[in-house]
Automatic annotation (TrEMBL):
GO molecular function terms listed in the Swiss-Prot or TrEMBL record: oxidoreductase activity
SMART domains, sorted: PKS_ER
The organism of origin for this protein: Nonomuraea soli
Keyword Transferase tagged: no
Location of the Enoyl reductase (ER) domain: 1-281
Protein name: NADPH:quinone reductase-like Zn-dependent oxidoreductase
Amino acid sequence: MLEVMELPTPEAGPGQVRVRVKAAGAQPYDTAVRAGWLPPGIGDELPRIPGNEFAGVVDQSDTIPIGTEVLGFTQLGGYAEYVVVGADQVAPKPAGLAWEIAGGLTAGVQTAEIALDTIGLKEGETLLIHGAAGSVGHAAVQIARRRGARVIGTGRPDNHDFLRELGAIPVEYGEGLRERLAPLGRIDAVVDGAGGQALDLSVELVADPARIVTLVDHGRAAQLGVMTTQGVRTAERLGRYARLVADGEFTFHVRRAYPLERAADAHREIETGHGRGKIVITVA
């Protein structure tokens, strides 16, 4: 259950920053928190505020000037007017970057780069991405292409032109996928954003299951011998991609922005499992 509540304003301690939030990304991680899942290291105290990525303006800190526009990450707390995090969990927001994009950037680009590092993608290899038009998927397409890989991306037909623009070879997902992939040659590695039958097929197509990383089917990863993302988010990485997006060198698509009071509607859309790009919550 999601409910808008009035809570005490948090205070920043030494080495922390308090950010007046402008926008926060929404993602399956948040819907899992709403359903009762606890991220590692988080206690079961209530109320529990979802949101692990945000953008806004620093209004309390002993390390970063007040008024600095930043984007950042946390475990919980992004769906709020104020969030407190360590100063090492924020990066400067480029002036030309829209708040909605800044608020939703972290999960997409950081997860994508960590995933590609996990499977050791190399120049000249062919990468298959299941769910290539999604938030992480469309970031992974571009990062892989920047690394010199050939990318095949599964998605609905209405997303195929979008995927082509990003440099991927689009393929419709669902029944008959194996046959549609066959003419495209060997697949060296997979980023799985779909799970289920798509992951099963990936294990059959790729010689080494350790070259497959699943973003969604964590419960079967060990059984199948595939990877889950191994790595930590960093402000350096976030700032690097924020600059690329602001400079027009990287695309990050925001599908829809919901006001905070409609966060439940945002979760309903996420749980459909379909859609291009990112959903964002606007806070101020």
